[in-house]
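Slide 14.
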Amino acid sequence: MSVPRIRRSALLAAGLALVTAGALAGPAAGAAVAATPAATGQPMNYVVNTKANHGQTKKAEREIEAAGGSVVASYEQIGVVIARSGDPGFAARLRQSKTIDSVGASRTAGIQAADVESTVEETAVPTAAADGNEPLWANQWDMRQIGVDQAHKSALGNRDVVVGVLDSGIDATHEDLAAAVDPALSASCLSGRPDTSWQSWQPTSSSHGTHVAGTIAAAKNGKGIEGIAPGVRVAAVKVVDNGGFIYPEYAICGFVWAAEHHFTLTNNSYYVDPWMFNCAGDPDQGAVSEAVRRAVDYSRRGGVLNVAAAGNENIDLAHKTVDVSSPDDTTPGGRPIDASCLDLPAELPGVIAVSAIGAKGDKSYFSSYGLNKVAVSAPGGDATAFQAPDTPDRRGGILSTLPGNKYGYMSGTSMASPHVAGVLALLASTHPGANAEQLRSLLVKQADPHACPTGVFNPGGTGAYQATCEGTLANNGFYGAGVVNAAKAADAWRN
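Slide 15: predicted structure.
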């Protein structure tokens, strides 16, 4: 199984009933290649952090321009300005200002168009199932694993609940998604500021966001599959560019948009590029971490609950030692890392980090993990050789929607995270008075505990994917509090 990208949060699971689509979550610790333009005059974007008020933000904007930069977007609510400059000395000059808290390049490659790989293989459109279920329900092992079939006997979700899908856009014309997508709440953040035009938030080079949205809210309409909470609304917030990158300014814009438009929750099946882990001791990465943290905190203060993929590197997030994948927009190089180096947004305070399980209920071979890092687990798929489901097509991935009224399989913590978002959407529907922290508490309380395996976890027996689980039945590194349960979420009487 190869690892194409939505920044390491989704893995390709080849083969499909309808479509096959590929996408995927020596120096001091965190020391990195300097983020400078590849050539003089090639523009770079920067996050500039200052005090969160109108006067200081305006002063920072003036200093940005005086230092030879331009203002791309300004978020005075959190004291973050997105700036652009082609001058390699721009950040160093700006760091001398008493107005500025920190400055960091948001990328290591200059701004340019990029290519993205895509693999799609179509077959016949499904016919209606004889038993009255969705045509592809028999292959949705993931939904039965968390009790969605039982949940739908009592709850489908409420239209007052809005789930923001911060991803690659959603095909709002898809037969299984058209009723759920709310265009009035959708936007693209690829410029660093929101663009609400319809075309801006439609998928272009990636089917990832459409797949994620289907898991959350695909309709029960006899067309294809069904999602966990088909009665809720989803908002497409496009934060993935055509190169497959989620740069900091995109995510910052997305979290602020979610707060300003009062989303119930967001799903974040990605990590913020170009660094898999942003280290506080690096001036660029430290500034990025601070800016993204401010945006996430702002959304939390606005009542938004954020869910994120833990990642697909089989890394123990509680014991990080090395990062060999960063920066991913130029040339990656190995570097030591420590606890100060964070996977954004999964490791930020208040974010629900999700690990992935396969059809047999065990940790997916690729899923990252970590005691007190992972909150809960959910179906994300696995190699069929490791955990084959008892379904007609025997595919170990997650079946969901793809652009153009198509359906396909993907695997990854990218797929696990929207299962949690869907269960939270049901909880918000059946507990309309609950705030974000209460919803989180309900989710964790209702999760089905899953014990650590005995000894070293070694799928396939080769040692290539071995991992060690720490913790107790109630809370451990592989599964957190346990596997989420949609059936319990659908019962309004539960507390």
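Speaker note: The CA atoms of residues 15 and 409 lie 7 Å apart.
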